[in-house]
Amino acid sequence: MSRRASCAGEACFEHVARTWIGARAAAFGLVLALGGACRGEAPGEVPRAQGEDGHAELDTPSGEGAARAAAPEGAAIESISDDLVIQALVAEAEANSEVGALARHLAVDIGPRLTGSGALVDAEEWAVDTLASWGLEAERERWGELAVGFDRGPASGSVVRPREPLAGLEGAELAFVTDAWSPGTKGPVRGRAVRMPTTDAELRSRKPYLRGAWVLVGHDPERGGPAWPRGELGGRMLRSVEQGTIAGFVVAAGGPNDTLLHTHGDHDVEWGALPKGVTVRLRGDQHAALSAAVDAGDYVELEFDVDNHFIKGPLAQHNVVATLAGDPDSGRANQRVIIGGHLDSWDGASGAIDNATGVATAMEAARLISRACAATGQRPARSIQVMLWTGEEQGLLGSRAWVEQHPEALRDISAVLVHDGGTNYLSGIPVTPEMRAQMDAVFAPVLALERRRALVEGEAGEAMPFGVRTVESLIVEPSDSAPFIHADVPAFYWDQAGRSSYARYHHTQHDHFDAIIDRYQRRSALVVAIAAWGLANAEGMVERANAGPIPRRQLGVLLEDMVVTEVLADSVAGEAGLEVGARIVAVEGEAVTTVEALVAAVGVGEARKTLTVEGEGGSVELRVDWSQTEGERERARRREERARRFGGDGDRDE
Q: Where's the PDZ domain (predicted)?
C-alpha cells in the first residue's frame, strides 16, 4: 500500500523559516524549507567529513554551503543555472543537507542489512516512511522470496593457550568473519589448533589430535582461496566438521600480510538441508602467526563463540519504489527517470560505503527536488522515481526481478542512474555519441557548480571536477544498472573519484559510517538531483540507438600468472597458434604483467593485435585477429553509422 505525506507541498512552508536566494528568485517568491520541519522534527545531525586518518570531521559551513553571504563576484547561485528549481535545490542543499543524517541512520541506527534479515525490513520501512514524508508516493514492492533468511548475532574469538601473546599477534583477541547463511557455534567452543592434513600420512599422524580441534586451513595463493586438500582427503575432512567430529575450520582469509576480511555467503539454502559445520575466516596475518606457533610445536588452544541464526521462510523480499509524479499537462508524465542504489548490504560490517552512500544520495536528491518543486510551484515533466533495490549482493535479484516483472514500463524509462561505488564524489558519466549533446546540456549546471566552488574556496578547497565522457557502448558494471542495460534501457553507473579507497571498505570489516566523506556525499547528492531534474525536463528521452553492450574481445585461454594453461577450442588464440605453456608478455609491444592489463590492452584499438609470448624456444610474436567476430562486426557497423551522422571516424571517444 502506498503511503503519502500528511503535510506536503506549500502547506509545509507555513512551519519553516524563509531564505531568499537572490533577487531573481525573490521576484518569484522562492522559499526554502529547512530540513525536518515538514515532519515536525529537528534536522538530523549532519556527520563529519572524513579526514586523512579515516575518521569523521565536522563538515562546517566553510565550504560550498557557507560563502553565500560574502561570495565573490560570479559565485552567486544564479551562476549555476537560470532554472529556478536547480537554484532552489542547490540553495537547500547548501543550507540544510540531510544526506549525512540519512547515511547515519542506515549504517548506525539500523546497521547491516542482509537480504533476508530483519534489519533489511526495518530499512525498507524507514525508507518508505521517509520518502513519503517528503511528498513522494512510496511503497515496498514485492519481487520474490527467500526460502531461508539469516540474522547474525555477536561473535568473538580468542587464543586461550598459551596465555602469553604469540609472536605476530597483538593480544589474544582474533579478527574473523563467518559466511552469511552459515551455522554458529551454539555457545563458546574451545579446541586445540591443529594444522589441516594435506596427505593421508599427515592425517594418520594428526588423527589423535583432531577430535574437537579447530583445524587451521592455510591460504593457496595460486587458487586465491583456502588450501583445501585435493581429492578424497578434502571430502573426508568436510564430513568431519559436518558430523561434529572436529570443532570447525579456521581458514586463512588471505596471505601472511593480508589484514582484510571479506564477507559473502550463499543464500540458496533450504530449511530441510541447512549447512552444517562451523567455518571461520581469520585475518591472514593472524592465521600465519597461529600456524607458525603450531608448526613450532606450541600447544595452541582457541575459543570461538559465533551466534548465527537461520530464519525459516518463505520470506517475501521487497524493493522500495517512490515516485515524484510528473506534470500531467506535460504529456510526458508517464515517462520516468530513475535514481537509486541498493538498500541491502553484507553483514560483516555496517554497509556504510556499500551502499548506504548510494541510498543516501538518491534519497537526498529526491528530497531536494521535492523541496525545490514545492518552493517554485513547478513539477518535472517526466516522473522521477527513487528505486532502492534489495538482493543486489546475492546477484542483482531485486533489480533483475523488477525489469522482468515490468516489461511494459521499460519503453517509458528515459534513464536509470545508479550510485553504487562508495563515498568518493561523482566525477563523471559515460555516454554514447548519440547521447552526448543531450547529456552535455543536462550536466552543464554540474560543471558550473564546480566553477563556483573554485571561486568560493580558491586553492585551499578540494576540487571535485565532473566530466561527460564518450564511450562506444554503455558500460555494464556488476550493479543494478546491468539488468536495465540488458533490457535496452539507458542505465548509468557513475564515475567516481576522490581520496577514499573503495577496495579497503568493499565487503570488508572496515565498512562503517566513519569511512563516509560527507563533503563528497553532499556534492554527489547535488549531482544526482541536477541530473534527475535535467533528464526529467529534457525535450526528448535519452537516445537508445547503439547503446547496448558490445561483446568483449576474448582470447579464449586460461591463465595462471600469465602462463597459458588451456587454449579453448575455436578461439582466436588457437587460430593464432598460442600454445599451453607460453607466457604472454606484451600486446602491441607494450608489456603486460597482469590479467587485468592484458584484458585492457586487447579490448581497445584495432581488431588485429600482435602478442609477444615466451616459451621454451624463446620469444615469438603472434598475430591475433578478432575482426570476424560478432562483436567486431557490430563495432564496425556502429562506427560507420556514427561517421555518417557525426563525421570523423565515428568514434568520438575521449
A: 539-597
